[in-house]
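Contributing new records

If you add data, match the layout below exactly. Sequence lines come first and carry their own label; structure lines follow with theirs. Keep one chain per record. Anything else will be rejected by the validation script.
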Amino acid sequence: MSASVTTLARPYARAAFESARGAQALAEWSRKLDTAAAIAADPRITRALGDPRLTAADQIALLLPEGEAADSSFTGYVGTLAANRRLVLLAEIARQFAELRREHEKVLRVTVRTAVPMEAAQADAIKAALKKRFEREIEIDTAIDPALIGGAVIDAGDVVIDGSVRGRLASLATSLAH
């Protein structure tokens, strides 16, 4: 994602977050933003949004979750995006909104890469250890990376814990070279 898209989306994500937090509707807004972003990502919708014959009201109607009221705060928010020609930012706005929500709810998203699929008990143990270390709730995303050979690499944002066999071999090679 380019810096300009990130920068342009930031005030819209914050505005959505503040509106949702004020209404105590963070989960609802997350769902709606994710839905609108997924709809906007569809190539047919992307083309339609670029069609100058489509009115702002038509654009808004394309992106609203099914059953969304015409006078809801979310509809008004999407209308503001349409009026400012920022509908293309929906995916980045949804991503930033999710980050703001996790921060507010003290949830840390962690990626655990392993050489082979992790068992549920292993994931639970890692989650418990990370919860204790970071004093936050933990969301774990898993990924398989056979190049690790064994072990795991845990990416917790600013902290990366490399417990992989590949990492240990690289560390050994570095210490032998010096």
